[in-house]
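WARN no homologs supplied; continuing
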Amino acid sequence: MADGLNLDPAELRRRALDHQRMSEQTREWSKPPSAWLDAFQHNYGTIAEPVRAALNNYYDARERAGNHLADQHAQTSAALHSAADDLEGVDLQGGSTVSGSGGQVPDGPTHAGPGGPGDPVPAGGPTTGDPVDAGHTDTRLVNATTGAAPTLSTPMLPDFGSMGGHGGDGGSGGALPGGDGFTATGALHGTPNPDDALLGLPGAGGDLSSAGQHNGQRSDDQPPMLVPPMLSPFARAVAAAKDSATETAVVNGGPDDDLILARTLLGAVLAAVDSPAVGLAWAVSVMRGPSGVRVFLTSTEGRGWLPAGLFLPQEVSTPWQWDELLGGDAGAAWEGITDPARILAEFGAALGPRDDTRITALVSSAPIDAGLKVSLPDASVEGMVGPAYDLDLRVSTPDTLDRLGLTGTAQALESVAAVQEPAIRLGCLTLAADAHAAVGRTVPTPAEALSARNLRERILTTLQAGQSVPRQLWDDLRDADDLLSAAMLSRRVDVGRVELGGLRLDDNADVLRAMVFERRCTELVLLLSGETDQQTLRDAVYAHQQIAAHPQFVPPVARPAATAPAAGPVVTAGPPSVAVAPPVDAPPVVAPLSN
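OK structure emitted
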């Protein structure tokens, strides 16, 4: 197969077995406790009959829901098995075609080596390593500096984009708190290609049936897939919603297919975000144009913050990935407003004239302002969308990406993949300490965030000392973060009376932005409360970049070192002369709180 195509029948079958096991476990879990229910009246008497009836109804509903979810996992398993068979069939067919084309050929199918089709294959055939989870990049990378493969005895700690005094990309990285050799040089900055968000939907020159990639990042130069397309879970959910829709809320005659598409995605996101932050709202828009269909998702926190554990279809994009096209400050006025639908409407108004696209559907978990509906006469609009459990976005699949895979650059993804298992926790700790220190030096701490900042400082000090953190400290930090989230409600702005396209940067936006930065610092620290793995590191890099890559975040400028004059009188007493090192080279280790 082509070098850029990361599909392996063995990997597909492994995932199929995972889904099959999940189906069996879900079906077993959903079975009602029949013996206990049968003995309920005998144990509690007829006076408890209403309770028994309610329990029967509950367990019956749970069984139906569990069986429905189990059926979905079983269907996914069957589809993966079918795709694996199709892949092998295409390989065999291609081999027979080559064999019959004339001339001598090798006795077996020819595989592409690591560097391309012309590279030799190791003795014994191509080597298939450990499976790579969806949303992750392959960790079997070569050190870009030395060319040597990483080894467990010498953990690789790549560049992660320190905020400790760097003003931009390419700065000279220094040692960060938490260990020697962990450097940061702004490697994660950059803007993804806007064309990555293109969808292939029916009527737009393609379909939603791509099986996706396994390495958690998009690729713009992959050759066309020569295997039969496999319907993704997202596409199946959209198709099922279209089939079962008997009544659709069509506004101003807009196309309801796009409305169903947007509503399906938003409902699945709301179902996956089981414990949303206070006041957090979500919206999804669909835009159509000559280039195809695009789907956009945003939240009302920061620059469309996405929570950990959410795996989104590769076709989804966010408005904040298009800064390079729209201008670095274009989205600054969208931060901190209460209506997520307004964010997407403003983005659509800015993007539409540039590529001749228009919003055809807009849905939100919050109410949608009547004036906004009037401003979108060609769109199907729906507010107060609730969670829908037909599509599970908490499970990584070949066609989905985690939040770093969706928004991160290829360089960032490769840097994360290069970190080996022994160094993962150190990487997470370094990112947390760097963000905590940089935000504290750069942004005035709001009064509402002081408690969380002090708790983070105590926890980081304890972790850097190699000690365990008491459970109470973790609980206190979560409580402080919840309070900060609630305090942000009064800082958000209602822009219902402002015309579409007329938003301007609010003078008080800096305070709300500082609160968002503090919450991301807390998120980084809380990622250290449990076991850490590759996914934890990916989530940490995403949270770190929500601060470091923010256009309005300007880290402290490094000052030149202050040295003694070349000539001067000899000092025979007093403290020895020292050189003041620039803070960029070594951000200070978080110090313990004073008594």
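The radius of gyration is 27 Å.
OK
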